[in-house]
UniProtKB/TrEMBL annotation:
Pfam families hit by this protein: Virul_fac_BrkB
Keyword Repeat among record annotations: no
Segments passing through the bilayer: 39-62, 107-133, 154-174, 194-216, 228-247, 259-277
Localisation per UniProt entry: Cell membrane
Name of the protein described by the UniProt record: Putative integral membrane protein
The organism of origin for this protein: Serinibacter arcticus
Membrane topology reported for the UniProt record: Multi-pass membrane protein
Keyword Protease among record annotations: no
Gene Ontology cellular-component terms listed: plasma membrane
Predominant subcellular localization, coarse grouping: membrane
Superkingdom per UniProt: Bacteria
InterPro entries in UniProt: Virul_fac_BrkB
Length: 397
């Protein structure tokens, strides 16, 4: 028994050093679960506004194309299970009918105000998602134009809306292509059905891949290396496809109860969005590829934990002299590491001086042996300088 615990600790330590372990550590340190809950809560109050805008604009573009309209409804039902009635049957599962989500009023001051209100409400969830993704990358929102930030959220909202319509259109195209290939090659109906299904899943994967890229680059404002970005987006697209299949089957069984159908759909919406948000934040944390977190060894005195107040406040002007993040107000343990940084800086200066002296000695006139020894000392000093500088380099983390 005594040998099992160290073995388990060793396995845990090895996992924590892997990319998956570091991803999980960043997700926990950034409070990913709470952020996902906030996104789901914001989505609950934004979904009606978002669907109203999307249906009003999208269905006007579609026009009288009933096949594409039904495909869009099915795509929305896949993205938000149990929310939209996908048929005209009054007993069909779903909370909202497509007709109730279409603004039919003409252009007027009232309609413009209503549209702007719906748009701002829909962008609330995008703002929550944007801040959460930045938290996974350790990014602080830069001080900038509020209008520009809203435009980024709007662009992300447009991308999400377009993804639904593009998925629907590609689903129809893949179905037609699969049927054409089946008839052309004389394949059996089961093989044709499998081919159509595979093409549909491949199209959905491609759309989800681009959506995750847009969420990280546009909505989150992160600029990861290209390889990390596309691999992370691919993982997210694969996970989104699995969640979509599981979510649809879950709501399909729950919606059969006429008494609990509406309530279960609302609860499922919260759980569904929470699950998708968690996936998105995990993908962001994986793409960030953060270093392994180190134990917090800062002296409590350096953090002013035992003082009153123990946080930065204008009510106590002396706290403004502490080291703290001016945007978040978090007290920084700068004092705890200042001595170590100063010692490291002195070592760098001393080794650089030794290198200069050794280089100067190697250039002086003397015997072959003296010049040889001076050259060796110069190489050793250069190696020490590189080691000292590299110990604090991000590339060596």
């Amino acid at each position: 028994m005594a040998g099992i615990i160290p073995r388990i600790q060793e396995i845990v330590a090895r996992f924590q050093a892997t990319r998956a372990g570091r991803m999980n550590a960043r997700y926990g340190a950034a409070r990913g679960a709470q952020l996902a809950g906030g996104i789901a809560y914001a989505a609950l109050f934004s979904v009606f506004s978002a669907l109203t805008i999307a249906f009003t604009v999208g269905l006007r573009i579609i026009g009288e194309n009933d096949e594409l309209r039904q495909a869009v409804l099915d795509a929305v039902d896949d993205a938000l299970p149990g929310i939209i009635k996908t048929s005209e049957d009054p007993d069909a599962p779903g909370i909202l009918s497509p007709d109730s989500l279409t603004m039919t009023t003409g252009l007027s001051i009232t309609s413009v105000i209503a549209a702007v209100t719906l748009l701002l409400s829909a962008l609330a969830v995008m703002g929550a998602l944007s801040g959460s993704i930045r938290a996974m990358f350790g990014l602080v929102a830069p001080a900038g134009n509020l209008v520009l930030a809203r435009l980024r959220d709007l662009l992300g909202f447009v991308v999400l809306g377009l993804s639904v319509f593009v998925t629907a259109a590609l689903g129809i195209a893949s179905g037609a292509a699969g049927s054409w290939v089946t008839s052309l090659l004389g394949l059996e109906s089961s093989v044709g059905a499998f081919l159509v299904r595979a093409l549909g899943l491949l199209c959905a994967f491609g759309v989800d891949l681009l959506v995750f890229v847009a969420l990280i680059r546009v909505v989150g404002g992160a600029r990861p290396p290209r390889r990390d970005l596309w691999i992370g987006a691919g993982i997210g697209a694969l996970g989104a496809g699995v969640i979509r299949l599981l979510g649809t089957s879950l709501v399909g069984g729950a919606g059969a109860n006429p008494l609990l159908g509406a309530a279960v759909a609302v609860v499922t919406l919260l759980l569904w969005v929470n699950l998708v948000a968690r996936l998105t934040l995990y993908v962001a944390a994986w793409t960030a590829n953060p270093p392994s977190p180190t134990a917090d060894s800062a002296d409590p005195a350096a953090l002013h934990v035992n003082q009153t107040p123990n946080f930065v406040t204008l009510s106590a002007p002396r706290t403004l002299d502490w080291d703290f993040d001016p945007r978040t107000g978090v007290v920084l343990p700068a004092e705890a590491g200042r001595e170590e940084r100063e010692t490291l800086a002195r070592e760098r200066q001393e080794r650089a001086a030794q290198l200069e002296a050794a280089l100067a000695a190697s250039q002086e006139e003397g015997s072959w042996l003296e010049r040889r020894l001076a050259t060796r000392r110069a190489r050793r000093a250069a190696r020490d300088v590189r080691r000292t500088v590299g110990s604090d380099s991000p590339d060596d983390v």
